[in-house]
Amino acid sequence: MILNKFLSMVAFIGASLICTGLAHAQPEQQIKTEIQKKLGANAKVKSVSPAPVSGLYEVLVGNDIFYTDASGKYLIQGEIIELASGKNITEQRQADLNRIKWSDLTPANAIKNVRGNGSRQLAVFSDPNCGYCKRLEKSLQQLDNVTIYTYLIPILSPDSAQKSKQIWCSADPYKAYMDWMINGITPSGKADCSTPLDKNMAFAKTYGVTGTPTLFFTDGSRFPGAVQITDIEKKFNSLK
User: Fold this and answer.
1) 28-97: which CATH topology?
2) Predicted structure pTM score
3) Greater pLDDT, 3 or 188
């Protein structure tokens, strides 16, 4: 009888230790559950992981980075900067999250333009009614020895879809695109051919391309907005 009680107590203590060990080994799951409960259904907590700073945890809500404490009581919005090096750790982490595989892109769904030897490659997601896209296109004219893949994603208006179809279905899509984006010549062709617009939109949704222009380089990194040509050249140089 005493032996049975002793064995039962040992088993209970062992099970308690295992459960305690698991709790200590997986605080991230507990924090995730706690924060998700507080944020509700409107925000999806993708993951929780230890942050570079002791005592803090990185919280991914969609692709946005937040930080929290071990209790999940606080949600901190801001950037972690390493003072010794001046490195913006949050910015670098965000860049990694936004990275794609270049091979995931489908060149056949893009308007292709080769200049010079075409050795440097760039993908641009663009809406024909996007003012910043038009500004970017004027800047991109300064690039040489480059292959530019332009993926049309009509996200701004129904007219964007119409123009995108007219551009794609024209005899020379690149000329029609540049005539409109740089010279303001409205596409006049019929929008009666098969287009990759739905596929481009699906790609944009999958990879979180929510604004135009968005640029991708061969290392998978993305630059949102009308990027300065100097920054594009600097990025190309870093890929050599």
Assistant:
1) Nuclear Transport Factor 2; Chain: A, (3.10.450)
2) 0.74
3) 188
